[in-house]
């Protein structure tokens, strides 16, 4: 079923990124605490609304350039299916609603969410034009999701977990840029015009390797072992390695430009993520 144009403009398929808000709930052993669950759920939904408002803002800024793109020209705003006033009004309404919800039900998450909104608005208007800085900003947005989730759940995030989040998001952002560069040869996005594909790939490989190292160190770090009472979280490392390798394989087969879409289209990747989550849940909440 094809969604209405305005709903498609919200990019609901991208809401999966806001699952990062729930990461501290899992790793902070707070999933059995009703207040933490409620505040995290509100924070995650508020980030969905906020990110959709930013997508609308971004598409408003980019509508002329998107019309020259072989894929993005079909976006609702670029194609004219959604008017500029409707998009602007919806973006404002979503942002106001997100702030109101967090103020009432998840106040600790307000500051990181506000910083995220401001950073992404700045990204949409200016920073995405700067080579490499654009992907660093995107990765920073994921870290802010985790920080918001940790505040909502009332737990302190591990520094290793924050680093893992940053480099994983950086890897995915670089993969998206690589896909765009191959698709349009850098002719639409200014930040790609002077960046060779081989360089993007080398940066992506580095980010992937660092992600694996950070996660591995996190699972056996003394503070992690003391917190969970076990070092068996190390058993989940193969899921992370396979998932990242699988993602890289999908890129080589022509994917990468739409990470969220690739996730839903590949059963192997979905199964890996689900098994990783189940394994973490068992090792954190059941086995110890």
List keywords for this structure.
288 residues; mainly alpha; Tetracycline Repressor, domain 2; 13 helices
- DSSP summary, beta strand count: 0
Q: How large is the count of helical segments?
A: 13
Shape: globular
Please give the domain count.
2
Q: What's the oligomerization state? A: single chain
Would you list the SSEs in sequence order as H and E? HHHHHHHHHHHHH
Category by helix and strand content: mainly alpha
Strand content: under 5%
Helix content: over 70%
Extract low-pLDDT stretches. none
Largest sheet: none
Please report the distance between the alpha carbons of the first and last residues.
45 Å
Cα-atom Rg, whole angstroms? 19 Å
The average pLDDT value, as a whole number, equals 90
Write a structural description:
By secondary structure, the chain is mostly helical. It folds into two domains: 1-128, Tetracycline Repressor, domain 2 (Orthogonal Bundle); 158-288. Helix content is 71%, strand content 0%. It has 13 helices and no strands. Helix 3 (34-66) packs antiparallel against helix 5 and helix 7 (133-153) packs antiparallel against helix 8. It starts with a helix and ends with a helix. The model has no long low-confidence stretch (mean pLDDT 90).
